[in-house]
Amino acid sequence: MPTNVSNLPPVRRWVPAPVTKEDIDWADLTFVDLAKAKTPEGRAEQVRLARDATHRQGFFYVINHGLDKAIVDRMIDIAALAFDDVSEEEKIRYRARIKETGEYLGYKLPQYWHIANGVKDRIEHYNFPRDVSRREHPNVLRPFLPEVQRIVEFTHRGVLNEVQKLLSLGLELPENTLPDLHPFDETNHSFWRFMLYNPRSQEEEDKTDNVWMKGHADHTSFTAIWSQPVTALQIKDWDGQWRYVRHVENALVVNCGDTTEYLSGGYYKSAVHRVIKPPSDQDGYRRLGLYYFHYMADDVRIAPLLDSPVVQREGVNKFIVGVPPVQETWRKNRASTYGVTQLERAEDGTEYEVVNGVRVTHYN
């Protein structure tokens, strides 16, 4: 991707929140360095780091990926336009038909997901298809679509496919095993998201114990999150404790999703995470971020990679009762039901629903 942003359409600057100075219980996450992975010795080290991090926590940072910070900062500026410079009428026009289609494309408006005790979310997002030309977009975003398309492709191919090569080798399979299941072509329905968390009233904070989004695991193969400074993301760590994810300038936070856990027979762990109210010195700031949700090709079945010696040694947990669904069925059913169905309560206090024969747990 080009690093010169001076010849691009002008955009108003987003002023980020200051980094918190509070004493925080940070998660100890691994750094996967894509620059070091370019030499044989460094590649062997990064395979081990990516494998162990995904097996233990399902979360890790990716650094030295090759994208200039100025481009990421500019994309945040563009993201703000989607929420601050689009009228409510136009947002409704481009509203995603999530329950009807099983896809998030377009706006998810606030007050859609139930959080707790009658309180619904204060989260907005605008979602682009992997190929941004597949649909029409709000007027204010149209001059920036070529830039969005470039960062989508970079995140898919330049980051996640490269990480998947390391994780394929971690399963003792050919390095292109996982990337080949996640092509950047018309069979793939990965999507890009601008997401904005708006502050809430104290009454809503009290009713939800400060939880902005319930603990959950993503139904994707992976999610890539461009790090931003508002401290609110927590992971359910390897020891069962909730810990915060620290902001690292120009890094990506990559989390393993359910699909990769199923492909690896449970060896790679789907990362449970949630979003809660930020610390007091960031109170009142809006949390704006860039996300990429990574799927396999639509016709691939979500079944364990039984050729992997690691999967064979570690035992296979098939997770899914009956015939595994193909990616298209899985992604649409999970998207259409999340946050809007009646959940059952388990003995341990968690809530759950059954989708495609899989028990999907929600942590409140």
TrEMBL record:
Residues 204-281 form the Isopenicillin N synthase-like Fe(2+) 2OG dioxygenase domain. Residues 31-135 form the Non-haem dioxygenase N-terminal domain. Gene3D superfamilies: B-lactam Antibiotic, Isopenicillin N Synthase, Chain. Coiled coil: none annotated. InterPro entries: DIOX_N (IPR026992), IPNS-like_FE2OG_OXY (IPR044861), IPNS-like_sf (IPR027443), Iron_ascorbate_oxido_reductase (IPR050231). PANTHER family: 2-OXOGLUTARATE (2OG) AND FE(II)-DEPENDENT OXYGENASE SUPERFAMILY PROTEIN-RELATED (PTHR47990). This is Clavaminate synthase-like protein. It comes from Lactarius akahatsu. The lineage of its organism: Eukaryota, Fungi, Dikarya, Basidiomycota, Agaricomycotina.
